[in-house]
Amino acid sequence: MSEMSRFNTTNILVVGTGGQGVMTATEILAEAAIALGHDVKKTEVAGMAQRGGVVSSHLRFGAKVLSPQITPGTADVLLGFEAAEAMRWRHMLRPEGLVLMNTGRLVPPIVELGLYDYPDDPVTAMRAAGTQVFSFDASRIAQELGDIRLGNTVMLGAISDHLPFPAEVLEGCILKRFAHKKATLVELNQRAFAAGRAAAEAAAKAEADAGCHLLP
């Protein structure tokens, strides 16, 4: 019997490149799970993260978690801060898993080094492989809010309605980090979180509508 079936564990894989806030996002997700009494384990793999290298972060939580490592084919949600990285890690998803993908293009260094060919259309390629993908341009949303660094909060907003606890718990963990700073930072992160939720909801609707159009 697998650990997931024994302990009802939730597995979230967060991937992207250095500087996007992958590790911070995972820390906040972990804080939210801990606040609700879950046993939490996480681990990160960063390749020259501060210089834009690829980053992946595993998060597992539930009644009892024995290992921080997500095994291939068992991730419930793949949160892709960068589209090509999301595509590279698609094999980690369980068959009914979900990809929440930022389509803002930020080419990883492994592409520039010739170690990986950047896909022409990661979203279409993943859907063609049978993966459920909700895609949106989190980078553009953050820029429109006035700060590209808000992309982290946009992505957390996007995943908030796909977790086994209320979105408000996650939002509270984000805003707590800005409680003693400028009020404008709290407001900006509130707006970014709401924008991420709305973007993911719109992407889900668009995917559902597209699926209906494919029916005979």
Automatic annotation (TrEMBL):
NCBIfam families: PRK06853.1-2. The keyword Oxidoreductase applies. InterPro entries: IorB_Oxidoreductase, Pyrv/ketoisovalerate_OxRed_cat, Pyrv_flavodox_OxRed_cen. PANTHER family: INDOLEPYRUVATE OXIDOREDUCTASE SUBUNIT IORB. Residues 18-197 form the Pyruvate/ketoisovalerate oxidoreductase catalytic domain. The lineage of its organism: Bacteria, Pseudomonadati, Pseudomonadota, Betaproteobacteria, Candidatus Accumulibacter. It comes from the Bacteria. The keyword Amino-acid biosynthesis does not apply. This is Indolepyruvate oxidoreductase subunit beta. Keywords: Oxidoreductase. One of its GO terms (molecular function) is oxidoreductase activity, acting on the aldehyde or oxo group of donors.
